[in-house]
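User: Please run a holo structure prediction.
Assistant: Happy to. Please share the sequence and the ligand.
User: Here you go; the ligand is nicotinamide-adenine-dinucleotide.
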Amino acid sequence: MKIGFIGLGIMGKPMSKNLLKAGHEVVCFDLNKSGMDEVAAAGAKRAASVADVARECSFLITMLPNSPQVRQVALDQGGIADNAKPGTLLVDMSSIAPLAAREIHDGLKARGIRMLDAPVSGGEPKAIEGTLSVMIGGAQKDFDEAKPVLATMAASVVRVGEIGAGNTAKLANQIVVAINIAALAEAMALATKAGVDPELVFQAIRGGLAGSTVMEAKAPMMLDRNIKPGFKIDLHIKDMGNILETGHAVNVPLPLSAAVMEMMQALKADDLGGADHSALVRYYEKIANLEVRRG
Ligand code: NAD
């Protein structure tokens, strides 16, 4: 199938390469040339604009930072709504606000364009392996059409409800991930200051109830003092903003999410917005005057 792919950042590059590996034709676009160079070298065709991609392909994927970028690409002049053929299916795999997903869907529907919201979990390593988890909102028949394509990038593709539901599931995912990383950072800080090697603590507890996918991915990064993203603090702040806004809209207090949001804001103020979210450990290092590292 010919697939238009817009947004070739940390996630979009490996995802589009997996589509190529599966035998699909990919027409790609990003504002940033280096992303396009890498995906074109793997066999994709470059487009000159969003409009070009939308005119050429009737199956489109977007993997952009947040709601404003998806809204711009989908609905602004020169975007998908203006240029795609009626019947086109847009699968937005970015993590955006559920309300924005519904508004963008409605704007496209007025032009006869279909949309699923299909954010992912798993991060760059799973994007490379093609083992992402995709959570989808939208019409069942559109889901059935998209599923075989998405399965070439993912280990799990689950429809959770109507449009916007995919991003609600993603917000739930991001609450668990953020609070888990903060808990791990807090535990590593305690072990270090109490004089116990945090690496041995990790080895001792990883197989018990405290063990988690987050611990397996992030404890080694904390111990190596590696803050290369992965998933940037700035993007997680964006998700925490969407989480708190959605919580307030449906009247659910989210005290733990609010606390971790402020820890992330402190890191951003300290110029660590571009660091991996495991840099939450740096917050504890600063307030407790310590350094977490291998013993
Ligand atoms: P990124 O910042 O690396 O990539 C985003 C890309 O979008 C950039 O290359 C940028 O140039 C491009 N872009 C922005 N505006 C554009 C426009 N108007 N037209 C064309 N291209 C445009 O971000 P990422 O880490 O790849 O994340 C993308 C999405 O996936 C985000 O919503 C993020 O929350 C989500 N996500 C990321 C991870 C992760 O581990 N990185 C994991 C799960 C979900």
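The pocket of nicotinamide-adenine-dinucleotide is lined by residues 6-12, 29-32, 35, 63-66, 69, 72-73, 94-95, 120-121, 123-124, 230-231, 235 (CB under 6 Å).
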